[in-house]
Specification:
mainly alpha
Amino acid sequence: MRDLVTALRVTGELRTDLTDEEMADVIWSMNGPEYCALLVHERGWSGERFGAWLADAWARALVAG
């Protein structure tokens, strides 16, 4: 996840109030199969809905502004 954050940092669009370590932790914590299993298999979300939600959650958590 640190490599992903490093690659994203060069865009200049990530928040500056979080360290790369903190951002990697956010991505890592939400990247486990538990989220998918819980929302798709247990709660009936479609895979597309889950993917859109995850992208939105990461954008809100990591992107500046």
